[in-house]
Amino acid sequence: MDRKRAKKLAEELVSKMTLEEKASQLRFDAPAVERLGIPAYNWWNEALHGIARGGTATVFPQAIGLAAAFDDELLQKIADAISTEARAKYNVFSALGDRDIYHGLTFWSPNINIFRDPRWGRGHETYGEDPYLTARLGTAFVKGLQGEGETMKTSACAKHFAAHSGPEALRHIFDAEVSAKDMEETYLPAFKALVQDAKVETVMGAYNRVNGEPACASPELMKMLREEWGFEGHFVSDCWAIRDFHEHHGVTASPAESVTKALKAGCDLNCGCTYQNILKAHALGLITEEDIDRSAVRVLTTRFLLGILGDEGSEYDSIPYSVVECAEHLALSKKAALESCVLVKNDGLLPLDTASCKTIGVIGPNANSRSALIGNYHGTASEYTTVLEGIQELTKGKCRVHFSEGCALSEDRVEPLAKADDRLAEAVTVAKLSDAVILVLGLDETLEGEEGDTGNSYHSGDKADLLLPASQRRLAEKVLEEGKPTVVVLMAGSSIDLSDIASQADAVLLAWYPGALGGRAVAEILFGEVSPSGKLPVTFYRNSALDEMPAFTDYSMHDRTYRFYRGEALWPFGFGLTYSECELTSLTADGEHAVIRARNTGSRATGEVIEIYVKDGLSPLAPPNPVLAGFLRITLEAGEEKEFSIGLSPLAFTVVDEEGRRIPGSGSWTVYAGFGAPDPRTGALTGRRALAVQIS
User: Fold this and answer.
1) Does this model's pTM top 0.90?
2) What are the backbone dihedrals phi and psi of residue 338, each rounded to the nearest 5 degrees, phi first?
């Protein structure tokens, strides 16, 4: 069903509804209107990396891990699998009269905010720090969720429009002051791409104000969205964000005034309870029935597009429940985990060899943790494989595996009645007994996440610094003192300063939150069944970098992310090693494409990611560092050489002035190609320089 017809059906339906019935449909928990054949519908559902909070579902790697794969085709396949499971669950649940929260077809995903500050707790929900990478991956994810059939498969949502990335503790009162240049250059491109290229059905506003106006009722942002970009879907508030208008932001004096401000600005659907005051606002003469009609038509249009209003149904109504966690989807989750792991150091220890490592020590609070597999906004898997379990499965009958938790995730002891560091002696003993040690450290959703979510342990989900919890630092120190060959596996969703630990360890593998079966994927990489091939979607900074960065509350991009950072990164954006040796042998480029020849000179097959960066050589308005303009995930067999053509982002050849106007660049650019960014740190870590050509 096309939008024009769906809108006409919605208009006809709204014309038959009473004022009360129309107002009721603008709540996230819309009640049934039985006389018109409208079933109850709960709009609230989540799917960052699988259907969340709605029962059993395939749990894919967290979004930041998916970003590390640099694979938009994979993202679209994953989103398609999620939407297939969503249809299967909706079909059986609605038939049984279950129309509860998290059981619908309207997903408030993906999160395409820019991970601008490494302290932000929700950064692992995003695709990292780069606008172009975020736009490419977000577009693929939306297309996978919404499908390409006659009926919209599920509804995707671009959130949180438009400048939102912490601090979590202040989000209900905070005003993000963003320059016109930073807005156009950094915060808006992904949203524009999802609206215009992916035709995303829903946009969600942020909690905070943006340049003085609440994001869910900003005339400037709404005008941009609908008049300039042509957005035709519906706009939803973040949950209880409209209540913040009068309770925290102080821009209105009452719930009725907040309703008025939001509805008139164009916020159609309220996640929260403030729109229960719509009728009061109408009675006070603050809003008209036409204001209510406009939003009611928009939200009901979405339901018609999904084929869940009227009698027509859809081509997805026969999808059986058996597709949930099917073998194909589980294999896709494992593939994503394999592609997402990023090897950032390897002094020759990896891959491990069971022939020479007869005793392996697995140590650390995340080694046998299910929480460390799944990140936040996760579903429930029927099976989990932790890193310890993956190693045990893979090495069974080949070597002995000893395990010690080593320490609590962030507390100073595991057992409340014990003394501090009550697992250290055990960890040291395991290290002494082992031929090689796998030290599994990091965070989970209780330490980094959303304000108020899962009882975040401190800082409302944000990080105070970039260091591991003290308990883990003490554990690492004692284990590394034993001098055994050691690989560190970091399971976290953001930049962690591992410089002291990494300097003593032989190898470091970043596994992110790799999904319910991610432990098996990590084990396969550690023991060489698969070569690692992920790339960093964020810069890993040293903790001291926070002293030079703008304050967390400062939304300026100065000295933030790889495009503007002036210091030396611990591990740069785009960086990641493999077990083979690949090189680029030639590069030609124009303003639209780059053609590259790549050769695997190593002895084993591997995945890799060709990355293309562009630097405007003359314009003072350009970012100081080269910007990502294209990428392609490839696979090369040992000794194989291939030629690849990669499209380049047109935005890379433009600049943004201080008034926020995007204008042509200088006409003199350098195009770089490599398996990482063309910065000195990447060159030092890899021993290679990027290829470069000048174009004009």
Assistant:
1) yes
2) -65, -40
